[in-house]
Design brief:
The complex is a heterotrimer of chains A (about 625), B (about 500) and C (about 100).
Chain A (H helix, E strand, L loop, with lengths): L6 H15 L6 H28 L7 E11 L2 E9 L1 H24 L6 H20 L3 H19 L6 H32 L4 H11 L5 H17 L8 H4 L5 H10 L4 H8 L1 H6 L1 H23 L4 H21 L3 H28 L12 H4 L1 H15 L6 H15 L5 H26 L14 H16 L14 H6 L13 H26 L7 H10 L3 H5 L4 H20 L3 H22 L5 H21 L1
Antiparallel strand pairs in A: 1-2
Helix pairs in contact in A: 1-2, 1-4, 2-3, 2-4, 3-4, 3-10, 3-15, 3-20, 4-5, 5-6, 5-10, 6-8, 8-11, 8-13, 10-14, 10-15, 13-14, 13-19, 14-15, 14-18, 14-19, 15-17, 15-18, 15-20, 17-19, 17-20, 18-19, 18-22, 19-22
Chain B lengths: L1 H19 L4 H24 L9 E10 L4 E8 H20 L8 H20 L3 H22 L4 H34 L6 H4 L6 H18 L8 H8 L2 H26 L1 H28 L3 H22 L2 H32 L15 H14 L6 H16 L1 H25 L15 H19 L2 H15 L2 H19 L1
Helix pairs in contact in B: 1-2, 1-4, 2-3, 2-4, 3-4, 3-10, 3-13, 3-18, 4-5, 4-10, 5-6, 6-8, 6-9, 8-10, 9-10, 9-12, 10-11, 10-12, 10-13, 11-12, 11-16, 12-13, 12-15, 12-16, 13-14, 13-15, 13-17, 13-18, 14-16, 15-16, 15-17
Chain C lengths: L6 H21 L3 H26 L3 H31 L13
Classes of the chains: A mainly alpha (about 625), B mainly alpha (about 500), C mainly alpha (about 100).
């Protein structure tokens, strides 16, 4: 099967091309069949390949499938070759399976939309680009997928193009991530010129040979790649596009802006981990950026009332955990959290989408309420997702991955108390903000009359499947206290160096786990105490009190980064454009024209047409010439 | 005889088209289409025949006597670089005939004659290796283009046409002076008059003389390119030209400037060019950023696209003066890809103007609802022009940056900012015209069959350049190698001169 | 032995005649009078030739005078024709009134 690897990205690509070529004339059912079917086939193929890979004699190997050359100039050549190792296998599986479920869900969610075929064409194109990104065996091909997912993100955020606000959000997302991508491209060029190749394994091996740890060039290269990762993964300081990106249809938010694309930054750092090991300051920066992002985003999520924006900040915060794990060298923990996060965050978005659909595109949580009885299925799905996000101990996948990251932050050589503390505080905040949403949306008296819960298989299967995965997905890796299952880290360990074995006294480890559990449960309790609507404290009162709080403006605006960037970048650019609009350089040439015109007018003024004037001129000229001749 | 035919055929077809239009306007169109199509087919066959390049990169060469007294010959030759540019010229020539099919109703005969003569001049410029002939053809391509703008252009056509003419004419006078000066110096040192490229290559020149002569060529070519601050003729000319004129102007006429820099400025005056390289690269980077900001500031669809050309050609200039293999390959790739992506945007502008009778984007918006196919095409070319990997422009820009980074890191890093700016102007173009709410309900026809056909050809070409650029890179490689290492060519020239002087002594 | 007019007297007369002609051209507005003034200037030049020829005993001066005479005749013919046309067109002979060729 593994030799068919190239079909995995190609199937969705073919689906996309067919849908584009149909120019919106294909019937609904055909579009669904092509759009969902191509991804479904890719997912099945991916599972078959995974089975073969895992059953292989040597799971540590990586397989490479070449599809010919792309660009070859001088000594450098970049080909279309895909490679599969444990890391890309996990990515591929999550991307195709979660992607398939979300595609299935979209049949219902986008069913009434006039741009149905266009939607699936973009979504399939996204799948293809994302799969190229994770399977590429050289960094330039990875960059092709990287930009491809960025383009699809732009297209899908602005999918409802009639509203200029959507277009603005889409362009903002593209421009901000492009800023990071450009830094990354320079980083790739630096690697290519210094190391003579962009093939991941070769380049990393050469870097380790040629560059001493901490050397300036390694730091520069890692920092440039990090800039790209930060942009794509919406981490500080390039995070401002993600909340606005929620303007896209909800399946898009689930697929691109939660489960897959935004985690590409994590993937890039993990893929090029050897480079970051060579650049300790940059790796520290990864951890610090992750910690700062996860705290900032968790706080910002508390100030939002739009359910999708809550989830968006939550995504940013959870990716912060992944960056924190990468920064302290817990590579496999980061990938593990990516996987569980993909499950539960996709679940949360899809459940939120079902709410939004049932409530006629209402996204404000304070105008929902009491939906627990009316939409029990969605309630349970959302609750499971929220539980996993809050890392409710033992029964959710999120607990196992988050606990691993926190333990690593405490114990790893590059970790530290402060990083651990940031993670713990954010874990508490996570519980508070997500259960704030749960209590306000599902409890208390009903505030709106939703449509009946849609009973469609295409809606049920994704929610059910993701619910199950959000619960059991964590059992592939458990801490020593709870059985020490290490399937996941064993697998990923063949591609990424294992986290340094943390020699912790059993007591310390238990205390760390207890602290994490306490943070999660404490957060839920606080949310219950503060946000559960009660007869004496209605939703309106809660909302009012929130707004009255002194920290509310800072939280709601996510600490004003948008305003800052507006003042520092957007306004100066617009001002410059306005100032130059009239083409100042042309004034230079206008000046030249004016000079010429003035001189011919001056010369023309002597031509009066008066005969006697000319005669006098001739006489004067003659006198002057003769005078000069005589006197000289 | 074949290279001369490449020039003669369009020129002759122009005359035929002019005469044929007296019977019916369609005849002029068909004559042009068939002539260009046949020529492109022949050229592609020649290319696929994979002619083995000589040691100095030339695929074919021919020479006819013209003015023997001054050593002026009709010396034509083709290498990978010329081949690609001639193929681009013919391809865009066919597209511009196709896009003028219903747009041009006044004097169709004279229109097609001018179009074909201009193309003949451009092809000649890409093939000529005699500097006098080069100058002659350089002028030949200007005059018909002047007529195309001045007769069939839009509102401000006379002003724009004259501005275009004066800018290029004034700068090409400097080039004429340099050509004559160079030939005179050659005459003084060898005693023989010659305007031949190979004879003038690698001549020993005093540094200040070389600098002066080089500047004559340099200014002529950067005005044509155009580089900031010599670019101001371009937005006016592009905006007011008819669609075919814009496509040819942006697609190929600008490339003659870059071609001249690659073929003449650096090889003839390597040391002087190296001295001026920092300045040229500064102009290039300035052009990339300045063009991007001004493109964003425009409200006229065509004017916006015109300014994107300034930005894109900045990358070409950067690549030329970085002068290494990656950079030159990138510059060549960027020329070809820019011809197609920008040509595509001008085609969309023309189609919109035909339907809406305006180019003002303040009166557009939301057109996707009415024109989804045209919107998709515009989106595609906009994405191409912002340099998305997988389309041709990315390959060009990436290689230019790669080469420039090897040469001078700072320039490459600043130029890379242009990639961010490219996103801003490309997307704002789509937002202002096709996205957003429908400004005013319009009932217009989406793309027809003929329009779909030529746009699809452009789209396929750009995708092919982006995904499989290797044939293009391989074609250019021997030419680039010969340009970078002119030693063998100069040695061969010296041997030839030696033999000739022995002959003369006997 | 005839009395010889001194060379200086002849030249002085030529200069005076020339000055009279110039003054006429500059002062008069009537084209006929301007033409006559030009004739006087021409004759002044001719006189200078003759005087100079006599002074050095050469025939060249007289030959030049004949040339000047023929030139003057031709010029007068052309000029009179022009003046005639001008008069028909503008109904005036005032030189300042017909300054239509002003730049």
């Amino acid at each position: 099967m593994i030799e068919w690897l190239w079909l995995v990205p190609l199937l969705p690509l073919a689906g996309s091309v067919v849908l584009m070529a149909s120019r919106g004339e294909a019937p609904h059912s055909t579009v669904s069949a092509i759009g969902v079917g191509s991804v479904g086939l890719a997912a099945m193929l991916a599972i078959a390949i995974a089975a073969e890979f895992l059953g292989g004699v040597d799971a540590a190997a990586s397989y490479t499938v070449g599809l010919g050359g792309w660009i070859a100039v001088g000594e450098l050549s970049f080909g279309y070759s895909l490679s599969l190792d444990a890391l890309s296998l996990v990515m591929m599986l999550v991307v195709t399976v979660v992607g398939f479920l979300i595609h299935l869900y979209s049949i219902v969610y986008m069913g009434e939309d006039e741009g149905y075929a266009r939607f699936f064409a973009y979504m399939n194109l996204f799948m293809a680009a994302m799969l190229v990104l994770v399977l590429a065996d050289n960094l330039l091909l990875l960059y092709l997928g990287w930009e491809g997912v960025g383009l699809c993100s732009y297209l899908l955020i602005g999918f409802w193009y009639r509203d200029p606000a959507n277009g603005y959000a889409a362009r903002k997302a593209f421009v901000v991530t492009r800023a990071g991508d450009t830094a990354m491209l320079i980083g790739l060029i630096l690697l290519a010129t210094e190391l003579g190749t962009l093939h991941v394994d070769t380049a990393l091996a050469r870097a380790a040979e040629q560059w001493p740890p901490g050397s300036g060039i390694a730091v520069a290269a890692a920092a440039l790649l990090l800039a790209g990762a930060v942009g794509k993964s919406a981490q500080l300081p390039l995070h401002t596009w993600l909340p606005d990106a929620m303007a896209g249809p909800t399946p898009v938010s689930a697929l691109i802006h939660a489960a897959t694309m935004v985690t590409a930054g994590m993937y890039l750092v993990a893929r090029t981990h050897a480079l970051f090991v060579l650049a300790p300051p940059v790796q520290l920066a990864v951890a610090v950026i992750g910690a700062a992002s996860l705290l900032l985003a968790a706080l910002a999520a508390l100030g939002q009332s739009d359910i999708k924006r809550i989830l968006a900040y939550s995504t940013m915060s959870q990716i912060g955990y992944m960056f924190l794990a990468l920064g302290v060298g817990a590579w496999s923990a980061a990938v593990f959290h990516f996987m569980t996060h993909a499950f539960f965050k996709a679940l949360l978005f899809l459940a939120a989408g079902a709410l939004i659909l049932a409530l006629h595109h209402e996204q404000n949580i304070f105008r929902m309420g009491g939906l627990r009885r009316r939409m029990p299925g969605v309630f349970w799905a959302f609750l499971i997702g929220a539980g996993a996000l809050a890392a409710v101990p033992l029964v959710t996948a999120g607990f196992y991955s988050k606990e691993q990251i926190l333990t690593a932050a405490w114990s790893a050589e590059r970790g530290g108390t402060w990083l651990w503390l940031a993670g713990l505080v954010a874990a508490f905040l996570t519980s508070v903000y997500i259960f704030r949403a749960v209590f306000i949306v599902f409890f208390g008296p009903p505030a709106a009359r939703p449509h009946a819960e849609p009973r469609r298989l295409a809606l049920f299967i994704p929610l059910a499947a993701l619910s199950v995965l959000s619960v059991i997905g964590g059992f592939v890796e458990t801490p020593p206290l709870l059985g020490r299952i290490t399937w996941f880290s064993d697998l990923v360990g063949s591609a990424l160096p294992a986290a340094p074995p943390h020699e912790l006294a059993p007591g310390v480890e238990a205390r760390l786990a207890l602290a994490a559990a306490a943070a999660a449960l404490g957060g839920i309790a606080v949310a219950w105490w503060l946000f559960l609507p009660r007869p004496e404290r209605t939703r309106e009162r809660i909302a009012e009190r929130e707004r009255g709080s002194p920290v509310y403006p800072a939280l709601a605006s996510a600490f004003g980064f948008d305003r800052l960037y507006d003042a520092v970048f957007v306004r100066p650019f617009l001002g410059l454009a306005r100032a130059l609009r009239g083409e100042p350089v042309d004034r230079l040439y206008d000046g030249l024209v004016w000079l010429l015109r003035a001189s011919w007018q001056g010369a023309g003024a002597t031509q009066t047409g008066r005969l006697r004037w000319y005669a006098a001129g001739m006489l004067a000229g003659g006198v002057i010439v003769i005078g000069i001749a005589v006197l000289a | 005889m074949m290279l001369a035919w490449l020039i003669a055929l369009p020129a002759a077809a122009g005359v035929v088209a002019w005469l044929a239009a007296r019977t019916s306007p369609a005849a002029a169109r068909w004559v042009s289409l068939v002539a260009l199509g046949a020529e492109l087919a022949w050229l592609v066959a020649f290319w696929l025949g994979a002619p083995a390049p000589g040691a100095d990169g030339w695929l074919a060469e021919e020479r006819y006597a013209w003015l023997p007294r001054f050593g002026i010959t009709v010396h034509l030759a083709v290498d990978g670089l010329s081949l690609l540019l001639v193929a681009l010229t013919l391809f865009l020539g066919i597209v511009s005939v196709a896009c003028s099919w219903t747009e041009i109703e006044e004097h169709p005969g004279f229109f097609h004659a001018n179009l074909l003569w201009s193309l003949a001049g451009v092809i000649g410029v890409f093939l000529a290796l005699d500097l006098f002939l080069f100058f002659f053809l350089w002028e030949l391509m200007l005059v018909p283009m002047y007529f195309l703008i001045a007769i069939w252009g839009h509102e401000n056509r006379i002003y724009s046409a004259i501005k275009f003419f004066i800018f290029t004419q004034a700068s090409s006078l400097l080039m004429l002076a340099s050509i004559v000066g160079l030939a005179y110096l050659g005459f003084r040192s060898t005693g023989v008059w010659s305007f031949d490229y190979f004879d003038l290559l690698g001549m020993e020149l005093a540094p200040n003389v070389a600098m002066l002569l080089m500047l004559g060529f340099f200014i002529a070519f950067v005005v044509k390119l155009p580089a900031v601050p010599f670019h101001t003729w371009l937005p006016d000319a592009h905006t007011d030209a008819p669609t075919a004129g814009s496509v040819i102007l942006a697609g190929v006429l600008l490339k003659t400037g870059a071609y001249g820099l690659i073929r003449f400025v650096v090889p003839l005056f390597p040391d002087a060019a190296a001295d001026v390289a920092p300045l040229a690269m500064t102009l290039a980077v300035a052009g990339i950023l300045y063009g991007a900001v001004l493109a964003f500031a425009q409200s006229d669809f065509k004017r916006l696209v015109a300014y994107t050309s300034v930005a894109h050609l900045g990358f070409v200039l950067l690549g030329v003066f970085a002068w290494n293999e990656a950079a030159l390959q990138g510059a060549i790739m960027q020329m070809v890809a820019h011809g197609i992506s920008t040509g595509g945007l001008f085609l969309v502008a023309g189609l919109l103007q035909q339907r809406l009778h305006t180019r003002d984007m303040r009166r557009m918006g939301g057109l996707w609802a009415e024109l989804p196919r045209m919107g998709a095409v515009a989106l595609f070319f906009a994405i191409g022009s912002l340099g998305l990997p997988g389309l041709g422009n990315f390959v060009g820009e990436f290689l230019v940056l790669l080469g420039a980074f090897t040469a001078t890191r700072a320039f490459a890093v600043v130029a890379a900012l242009g990639l961010v700016a490219a996103v801003i102007y490309s997307l704002i173009l789509i937002q202002r015209s096709f996205h957003g709410d429908l400004a005013a309900p319009v009932r217009v026809r989406d793309l027809g069959t003929r329009e779909t056909a030529y746009l699809a050809a452009m789209i396929l070409a750009l995708v092919w350049l982006g995904l499989r650029p290797q044939p293009v890179l391989d074609t250019a490689r021997p030419a680039v190698a010969a340009l970078l290492e002119p030693g063998p060519a100069i040695a061969a020239r010296d041997a030839r001169l030696e033999a000739a002087s022995l002959e003369a002594r006997r | 032995m005839t009395a010889v007019v001194p060379f200086e007297h002849g030249l002085l007369l030529a200069v005076l005649l020339f000055a009279v002609g110039v003054a006429g051209v500059l002062a008069r507005r009537n084209l006929i009078f301007m033409l006559m003034s030009i004739e006087i200037m021409l004759n002044a030049a001719g006189l200078a030739f003759v005087v100079a020829g006599a002074r050095w005993g050469q025939a060249d001066g007289q030959i030049m005078f004949i040339l000047v005479l023929t030139l003057a005749a031709a010029e007068v013919a052309v000029a009179l024709a022009l003046i005639l046309k001008l008069y028909q067109h503008f109904h005036t002979l005032d030189a300042d009134a017909v300054s239509e060729m002003g730049g």
